[in-house]
Specification:
- Chain A: It holds the Pfam family ETF.
- Chain A: Belongs to the ETF alpha-subunit/FixB family.
- Chain A: It comes from Methylomonas subterranea.
- The complex is a heterodimer of chains A (313) and B (249).
- Chain A has 313 residues and is an alpha/beta fold.
- Helices cover 28% and strands 27% of the residues of chain A.
- In chain A, helix 4 packs across helix 5.
- The longest helix of chain A has 14 residues.
- In chain B, 27% of the residues lie in helices and 31% in strands.
- In chain B, helix 2 crosses helix 5 and helix 3 crosses helix 4.
- Chain B is globular.
- The chains are: A alpha/beta (313), B alpha/beta (249).
- Chains A and B meet through helix 4, helix 5, strand 5, strand 6 and strand 7 of A and helix 3, helix 4, strand 7, strand 8 and strand 9 of B.
- Bound molecules: flavin-adenine dinucleotide.
- Flavin-adenine dinucleotide sits at the interface of chains A and B.
Chain lengths: 313, 249
């Protein structure tokens, strides 16, 4: 019977929402036990993980902060733990994408990336070609190593009471890699990857001042702000706002695109959104083909009018 | 220092793909093929590092069918010095690619391996990290800035979900490139002519020392569910009403 290990993602203090969502995926695989591994300097994320329903044990491996995010340091630890498991899973965030293939190579395993559905013990669904095709893949014999597209799953709720076990692995970690710094984009606003509403701006937003307008509207709606690659490349907003095939994959209840044409590299990141709205001056923009509600109009007129309409509500 | 860059031949990013009706894959006959865009960025970066005087040779490698020569020639025209094609007529999955590259690294002894962070066909995002793991080398994925720091070190800024992270790595190392690292140069006709006389060596995957490699089995390929057709509204007031009707406002 399967024994699943899920690697948690956290920021040192809080469990990342991607962990509870990936857990939902993991729970769909028939299993005997499901454990979560937490690597870090604080037990707090491990304590949170222990509260997630369906978890048997939380393995807490203490590591200095400056090593806890480094794939090269985590890899030997995960490989060591994996000996007791049939499946090793991780959220397909930038953290998991960095770490897991290194682990897979060490285990001589063919990794399944970015799974969006479970089809059995070792059979999964995932998108390829920027979301233009959906494949069903079967992992070969040996440890199943898979990353989970967290936003394809709803989070598992809290209410469980697993035990947290401290595990001392006593391994020599590599010294060839040093973390010099993490420039976190700090924001009081909702997190793009877990927000229930997202307003996204593209090249059509024109510049930083256009995004200021978008932020004001977002604040009225309690929404997060995202962007297309063109808007990030142009320097309107930082890289961590980019949505798409090769960046963040989101699934808010409401997604509104302002001045985004709808290239499929962008659409790949919003496939699972509840309601897609497009505001674009070009009636032939491809974004309208996927929009549930389309408005052919100038975004610079629409944004203040929407603000007004919300104020009158 | 020698830089090895891996390039993959993929369906061009502009092509609207069609899934074959029998579920066996996507239609690739007669479709435009190109260098994977992320790999093109890796080639560009290698050439810039050489131009800055930090490297003396840029070797480009591809694993795949004979047709990959086209992409290797394009990389040579950009400014790579030498190319190597590892011939293999079946599907080259990431672990197999990583093992082939590991074998080549053993023969060629580069100090730096540059690769695109993800191939836009399988969207796996695995091969660079696998290669780094197999070699026990440091890795820096999703690079948006690379600085050869001297004393056998390189500094890499990475695009991560939280923002930007900077690492210092000892050479030799594997770095995977993200979109904002650079903008690849356009190739001019004289360079295409010149590239024709640059060395392009071929060898067979079977001739490389590669251990037993498990493969994923792709059971079926299907077209994604299309979204139901939407509505057009004529004003912001109508938009607000439509949002309320959908229960999202
Ligand atoms: C390898 C690769 C990976 C990529 N990955 C991603 C990715 O992850 N995410 C991503 O987003 N892109 C990605 N791209 C880029 C993608 O192909 C498109 O180039 C990009 O999404 C375009 O951004 P955009 O829609 O903002 O700009 P454009 O395509 O230029 O569209 C701007 C739109 O704004 C409209 N507009 C202009 N002014 C106004 C106005 N006043 N009011 C209303 N509308 C207006 C225009 O009609 C137009 O439709 C990738 C590309 C490659 C090659």
């Amino acid at each position: 019977m399967n024994r699943i290990l899920l690697i948690a993602e956290h920021n040192g203090q809080n469990l990342d929402p991607a962990t509870a969502k990936s857990l939902t995926c993991a729970l769909q695989i028939p299993h005997q036990t499901l454990d979560i591994a937490v690597f870090g300097s604080s037990r707090a994320p491990a304590e949170s993980a222990a509260k997630l329903v369906g978890v048997n044990r939380v393995l807490f491996v203490e590591l200095p902060e400056n090593q806890a995010g480094l794939a090269v340091c985590l890899c030997p630890l995960v490989v060591e733990l994996s000996a007791d498991y049939t499946h090793v899973l991780v959220p397909a965030t930038s953290f998991g994408r960095d770490l897991l293939p290194r682990v897979a190579a060490k285990l001589n395993a063919a990794q399944v990336s970015d799974i969006v559905a479970v089809d059995g013990d070792r059979c999964f669904k995932r998108y390829v070609y920027a979301g233009n095709a959906l494949i069903t893949v079967q992992a070969p014999a040996g440890t199943v190593v898979a990353s989970v597209r967290a936003n394809a799953f709803k989070p598992t709720s809290a209410g469980g009471q697993a035990v947290v076990e401290t595990v001392d692995l006593n391994l020599e970690l590599p010294r060839h890699t040093r973390l010099l710094g993490l420039n976190r984009s700090v924001s009081e606003r909702p997190d793009l990857q877990s927000a229930s509403r997202v307003l996204a701006g593209g090249r059509g937003v024109g510049g930083k001042s256009g995004f200021d307008d978008l932020y004001r509207l977002a604040d009225k709606l309690g929404a997060a702000v995202g962007a297309s690659r063109a808007a990030v490349d142009a320097g309107f907003v930082p890289n961590d706002l980019q949505i798409g095939q090769t960046s963040k994959i989101i699934a808010p209840d409401l997604y509104i695109a302002f001045g985004i044409s709808g290239a499929f590299q962008h659409l790949a990141g919003i496939k699972d959104a509840g309601v897609i709205v497009a505001v674009n001056t070009d009636p032939n923009a491809p974004i309208f083909e996927v929009a549930d509600i389309g408005l052919v109009a100038d975004l610079f007129e629409v944004i203040p009018q929407l603000e007004q309409a919300l104020a009158n509500k | 220092m020698k830089i090895l860059v891996a390039v993959k031949r993929v369906v061009d990013y502009n092509v609207q793909l069609h899934v074959k009706s029998d579920g066996s894959g996507v239609e690739t006959d007669g479709v435009k093929m190109s260098i994977n865009p992320f790999d093109e960025i890796a080639v560009e970066e290698a050439i810039r590092i050489k131009e800055a005087g930090h490297a003396d040779e840029v070797l480009v490698v591809s694993i795949g069918s004979d047709a990959c020569q086209e992409q290797l020639r394009a990389a040579l025209a950009m400014g790579a010095d030498r190319a190597l094609l590892v011939k293999c007529d079946r599907d080259v999955q990431p672990l197999l690619a990583a093992k082939a590259l590991q074998a080549l690294v053993g023969q060629e002894r580069p100090q730096l391996v540059l690769m695109g962070k993800q191939a836009i066909d399988d969207d796996a995002c695995q091969t660079p990290q696998m290669l780094a793991g197999l070699l026990d080398w440091p890795q820096a994925t999703f690079a948006s800035r690379i600085v050869i720091a001297g004393a056998g070190k390189v500094e890499v800024t990475r695009e991560v979900d939280a923002g930007l992270e900077t690492l210092s790595l000892d050479l030799p190392t594997v770095i995977s490139t993200d979109l904002r690292l650079n903008e690849p140069r356009y190739i001019k006709i004289p360079q295409i002519m010149k590239a024709k006389s640059k060395p392009l060596q071929m060898l067979d995957l079977a001739d490389l020392p590669i251990t037993e490699t498990p493969l994923l089995n792709i059971v079926t390929t299907s077209a994604p569910e299309p979204r139901p057709a939407g509505v057009r509204v004529g004003s912001v007031a109508e938009l607000v009403d439509a949002l309320k009707e959908k229960g999202v406002l």
